[in-house]
Design a protein that fits this description.
The protein is α/β, with parallel strands linked by helices. It has a single domain, classed as L,D-transpeptidase catalytic domain-like, CATH 2.40.440. The protein is built from 5 helices and 10 strands; from the N terminus they run αβββββββααβαβαβ. The chain has helices at residues 2-18, 116-124, 130-142, 166-170, 184-190; strands at residues 45-50, 55-60, 63-69, 78-79, 89-90, 92-103, 106-111, 157-159, 180-181, 199-202. α2 packs antiparallel against α3 (130-142). The protein is globular and about 45 Å long.
């Protein structure tokens, strides 16, 4: 009976957590980019999300400064994200586009997905049109958050569990809609490191 009850708690908590993975408001202005995707690592701290090691690491150059273990990613895993609603966490290099400290997930650190790499591939594969591609590219060049309403999806970020059931997260379930999740204590510890425009690499 306990096992059945525990399963119900996990399922109920999972349903609440995966119901949304987005902040309530977006500040779409960030500092102009310092480095493009293939440029050298920044001088200041940056974030490495290692989906194979199940960790988010604050880096200084090539040196790890602080590590957060047992992260959760999208319920479809991490990889190349193709479209809105595929529950995939996108691999690649991004920047912090906005921060919402009053999210239902405690803190939401929004990433500037889709980036030009995703837009170029989608244009080649005719999943977006030329106008959508140009909107994404122009946003990247000028340091703004790219449009979040394209067929490629949006509202990808790093967040906590918030008021959700922490048992689901601690059970090691990948429960998000494409975001990277930490527990509430971890997101509090990460928050002081995070700045707008900060490099975030998901691999």
């Amino acid at each position: 009976m306990w096992k059945f009850g525990k399963r119900l708690i996990l399922i109920g908590g999972l349903a609440w957590l995966v119901s949304a993975c987005a902040p309530t408001s977006v500040d779409s202005t960030i500092p102009p980019p310092v480095a493009a995707n293939n440029a050298a690592l920044p001088a200041g701290p940056w974030l490495l999300v290692d989906t194979k090691a199940d960790a988010l690491i604050v880096m200084q150059g090539n040196r790890p400064i602080e590590s957060f273990r047992q992260i959760a990613v999208g319920s479809s895993g991490a990889g190349l994200k193709f479209k809105r609603g595929d529950n995939k966490t996108p691999l690649g290099v991004f920047r912090v586009g906005w921060i919402n400290d009053h999210s239902r997930f405690k803190t939401f650190i929004g990433l500037d997905y889709p980036n030009p790499d995703y837009a170029e591939q989608a244009l080649r594969e005719r999943r977006i049109d030329a106008l959508t591609y140009e909107r994404i590219r122009a946003a990247w060049i000028t340091g703004r958050t790219p449009p979040q309403d394209t067929p490629l999806g949006g509202q990808i970020g790093i967040h906590g569990v918030g008021a959700g059931n922490p048992v689901v997260h601690s059970a090691g379930i990948d429960w998000t809609s494409g975001c990277i999740a930490l527990d509430n204590r971890q997101i509090e510890a990460l928050r002081p490191w995070v700045k707008l425009g900060m490099r975030v690499e998901i691999r």
